[in-house]
């Protein structure tokens, strides 16, 4: 845990007590702050009280004494309208920040300060979790103490304090960036930008601008890495390449770049020097299948090269990468049927990356739909042997699939999984895949996408122990 000593002797509010909020309570208390906290969930309030927080509705907080409000990333800051606590803090002149900003103040904003641990920050619409995990894996293989967290795995304040070989590797959502004005990465990575979270940012342009803000905050002595294969990210790269800031390294899959890092025909090249040099054949990285993972590998290579000078060592680590939990994760097999957990695919663009990898899919999809639904997935419908729809988006998804792919609607993921397993087992396909790639947020039935994936993993384990052999 990183104690928040910069808040010692002050009163601080923490609103929202999920993973990051509870970590903030622990860090603030360890640093000597008086913490006022609240959450709608009784269990969370009880846990915070046990940690020493003063638990009460925010209307009862001493707003005239509060130094800061630590806001959960899940609480609306601007769109569709600010939460009531945001307006209250603004009226009281209390700064509104997130747990990542607390972290930034503890490790220090100036990378030039001796002893300050380097920070690599990764954002983007898709691929950021795999890229983050892969960067951490490469650094660990090279002997660094890679502390990986943020929007993936551990809350940032639950990471270990800085040590001589520490490098922090943080996945940051747009919500977290919005609440972190003081974070200064040594290396910033933008994977890509496609429409997502428009309900929270108003427009695609606003969403892209927040992603780009992280790049603007990068240390002038650092480096920016940008995937340039989508229009929004390409435009951001063009601006950064000519603004006199830190050097910007473009990354592409399918295009030979005059300068940058790129993948052509599955081969990774480093073109940052005078001549492009082959790094590796990505066919040797079995847990990074598909062109989307080629982009992740290229981004991770570019982000770690400032710290790991030996490109061959990076290539070996990429080849050894075990894969990311909840992203195209093999979770079991029953006879010829393979079960794949891709719960991390919370929008259509992310689901497309999994649908492109398998020819005979029994698709588990649904949840809380994102803008645009699944219309963009039409090119992949011929791969879907049957869709098993669940959750709030089921009816809308069914309307899109009507006449294009067979489907059935279920109340729960449990029922849908059992039906998909039976249908796949009874099919004539030689290698059917039951794929959970929901193309939706999880909040209609689950705490988060990880909870959804854990439930699916447990369902598959139960089916392996007691296979469904006939319809009930």
Report, as a whole number of angstroms, the end-to-end distance. Answer: 49 Å
The gross shape turns out to be globular
Assigned CATH superfamily of the largest domain: Mur-like, catalytic domain
The total beta strand count reads 22
Quickly describe the structure:
Helices cover 33% and strands 22% of the residues.
Give the SSE map.
Layout: E1 11-15, H1 19-30, E2 34-38, H2 42-50, E3 54-55, E4 66-71, H3 84-92, E5 95-97, H4 99-107, E6 119-123, H5 128-141, E7 145-150, E8 166-171, H6 174-178, E9 187-190, H7 198-201, H8 204-216, E10 223-227, H9 231-241, E11 248-253, E12 260-264, E13 267-271, E14 277-281, H10 291-304, H11 311-320, E15 329-334, E16 337-341, H12 348-355, E17 361-366, E18 368-369, E19 384-390, H13 394-401, E20 407-410, H14 413-426, E21 433-436, E22 440-441, H15 449-465
Parallel strand pairs: 1-2, 1-4, 2-3, 4-5, 6-8, 6-9, 7-8, 9-10, 10-11, 11-12, 16-21, 17-19, 17-21, 19-20
Antiparallel strand pairs: 12-13, 13-14, 15-16, 18-22
